[in-house]
Design a protein that fits this description.
By secondary structure, the protein is mainly α. 84% of the residues lie in helices and 0% in strands.
């Protein structure tokens, strides 16, 4: 717990800010889709092609979700090294896509809005903060390199240690989120 306090308020402000960006972008994606149904259909088709067919078992579903989210978390953390901008773009993009998909499934009549939300909330309340923590870890690493104490190599190493510690926290949360998404969300939402 003490190590989490050592990260400082800037880290936790970044986490909060990244979550807010995700949520705002999801609203933008939803309203974009309402006014651009043709583009929405193309986006959903591209997503479906990218994701491929659903895995044949719950274990494979879990592994696919966990692996995908872990890759996103690592990429988000590393993208923070690019002037601290990358995580903001990744969270905005992912939020936008969530908004597009929610609008698509509700507007096409596939699921009512409340059921679509139930398809996101059980695991999303863990997954979204986990991804924000990974992104904030990258921003922290960048800030340590720029504003930290010691030589450039020491600042890089100190930032990397802190970032990797928070990446571990993020991955553990993503593990829990993938379990929820695989085994709980489908039952709660009636989707799947």
């Amino acid at each position: 717990m003490e190590r989490l306090r050592e990260l400082g308020g800037g880290f936790w402000r970044s986490v909060t800010g990244l979550i807010v960006v995700f949520l705002a972008a999801s609203f933008v994606g939803y309203f974009y889709s309402l006014h651009n149904p043709e583009n929405t259909l193309q986006i959903v088709k591209a997503l479906t092609e990218h994701m491929g067919p659903p895995p044949a078992s719950d274990l494979r579903t879990f592994l696919k979700i966990f692996t995908n989210n872990t890759v996103v978390a690592v990429f988000s953390m590393l993208s923070g090294l690019f002037f601290g901008i990358g995580p903001w773009l990744i969270m905005a993009f992912n939020g936008f896509i969530v908004g597009v998909v929610v609008c698509f499934v509700t507007e096409t009549g596939k699921y009512p809005f409340t059921q679509a939300l139930l398809g996101l909330l059980p695991h999303g309340i863990v997954e979204i903060p986990a991804l924000a923590i990974a992104g904030a870890a990258g921003i922290l690493w960048y800030r340590e390199i720029v504003k930290g104490e010691g030589s450039g190599a020491e600042r890089f190493k100190n930032g990397m240690k802190k970032a990797l510690m928070m990446l571990v926290v993020s991955v553990l949360l993503l593990f829990v989120a993938a379990l929820i998404e695989t085994y709980v969300t489908p039952k709660v939402s009636g989707i799947g």
